[in-house]
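== Sequence entry ==
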Amino acid sequence: MRILFLSHYFPPEGNAPATRVFEMCRRWVRAGHHVTVITCAPNVPNGKVYAGYRNRLRQREDVEGIEVIRVWTYLAPNKGKVRRIVNYLSYFVCASFAGLFVQRPDVVIATSPQFFCGWAGVIVSRLRRLPFILEIRDIWPESIVTVGAMKKSRMVMFLERLERRLYASARHIVTVGEGYRRQLEARGVQPARISVITNGVDRTAPAPSQRDGPLLDRLGLKDGFVCSYIGTIGMASGLDVVLRAARNLKTSRRGDIRFLLVGDGAVRAELERVAKAEQLDNVIFAGLQSRTRLNAFFSISDACLVHLRKKELFETVLPSKLLEAMAMAKAVVLGVKGSAAELIRESGAGICIEPENENELIAAVERLAADRALAESMGASGRCYVLKHFDLDVLARNYLTVVEQTAKPA
């Protein structure tokens, strides 16, 4: 088949949607299919184009056999509203136009976030009379209202109507978790039109076997217990809880426990400013790192924090960073209710805490710091579980089956 995949994000960007699209597409190429991805110049999260790229009207490259077409977008950092909306709309226009001129595909797939990427898929599929698969990784615009990026308004109500029209325009919808399936059904999508293909892990990627000594020295973390958050430091992450926990630990003179925050996002600068102002030297910000460097940060972590704000919407989420931490054989401190908490309890991979509760976060890290054998045992259990149930090779084959069935004439 010829598969056209529209995604606002793609490597070398290292966020969850970029990684998912890349991992699926490269496996489909290995299976003998031709895959074209229409994306933009890599610029997340700061709105600055990565070295070696330019924000041109159109540029083409080959990435492990995937034909990648990058289109021009208005660049904006991952914060604020107006500039980000213009960024989304510019991708919608340019990706829709580019999709009309690639060699005729058998099927069009478009992924959220963000919302207008899905609509670009609708435009291309309708004008070229092609079957359309919509991938839902986020319930939008509800998610941006939940994190406070927008308030309920007539504009949001209009976007919600567009959301339902978007679902109706797809021949099939692929989503990343059972919680999302339930939300789609509640919005009137017929169950037969929904498939769940979760995020996954590469079983061939080994867990780090030894700590990166030079990195430990550079960050000043050679002694003590390190609990790392590795991922986007955005409005949904609720990482104020780390600063509150760090403040209390410093007051109680637990200098042996450190929090390492690896990544960037809309709230990172403010968190770092507060930590510096309060002299919280037990919180270290490592900044944005390439995916090739992440293994080094996992190697120096004794446990990994996975956390989202205490909102009902996030109870349906299975964060990709959770699966990554488990695959790296790290004990997880999980501040997410719902599906993710059920997975932790079933796998024995870590400790569940109430989201945004600094006292429970402190209790969890103190418990793991006092019992390193327990932390190692949880990490081993998590890796065993995730390799068995979230193998990317299996998930990519299942996804490809959905694509093949959808591509058949109705």
Q: What stands out?
A: DSSP finds 15 helices and 14 strands in the chain. The longest helix spans residues 82-99. The radius of gyration is 21 Å. The chain has two domains: 2-200+391-407, 213-389.
